[in-house]
Amino acid sequence: MNYIKEWWRTLVSVFFAQSCAVCNAETESGVFCPVCRRSELLLEAMPGLLNLDGAVMGYKYSGALKEMLHKLKFEGESKFLQPLAEEAVFLAQAYSESCFDMVVSVPTDAARRRQRGFDIPESIFAGALAVKGVWQPQVLTRIKATAPQYGLAPDKRRSNVLGCFEVRGSVSGAKILLVDDILTTGATLDEAAKTLKQAGAKSVYALTLCGSLENFKK
Questions:
Q1: For residues 193 and 204, is the Cβ–Cβ distance under 8 A?
Q2: Gyration radius of the chain over CA positions
């Protein structure tokens, strides 16, 4: 039996080995090797917005990570879901904020989800945060289709997502961690936080896979 297990591990390593998207070194999981992962990590704590109490951006929204997310969002390249989800595991381990009552992902509208066949934030973070026992992505839903935020001016981004979310379930008095793939201006996260607080949430913080410091607006 041990021989079979060792044979299988060797087979997997030969035919399914991953390489770092930055330096091309072999890596067991994720987008980056350990060295490049450290250089790409931001773990930048940002101040709160109008409704969002605070946010942490995981990685730099640039290079290979940015390209993967664009291909995932706009070309439906689902092969990038697994390595991005593996990076979310590293991110969740490095992220020290704890004691949340529930973790909620920013939902995709139903039509776009059907077209892609998956929800990006939910798919990326489910494995990393479900182990905490507070993963409840169904709590927040998108009731209005919106144009992609990419390419819109900051003021247009806010109006684009206005009133697009709805809470289904009880969030009364809850401290919530809201997760998403990207933080740029924070308009989508702030609208989601507003909806959760209007439904009774005590506080809402955000954790995103990556973020763009230069685009962040207080």
A1: yes
A2: 18
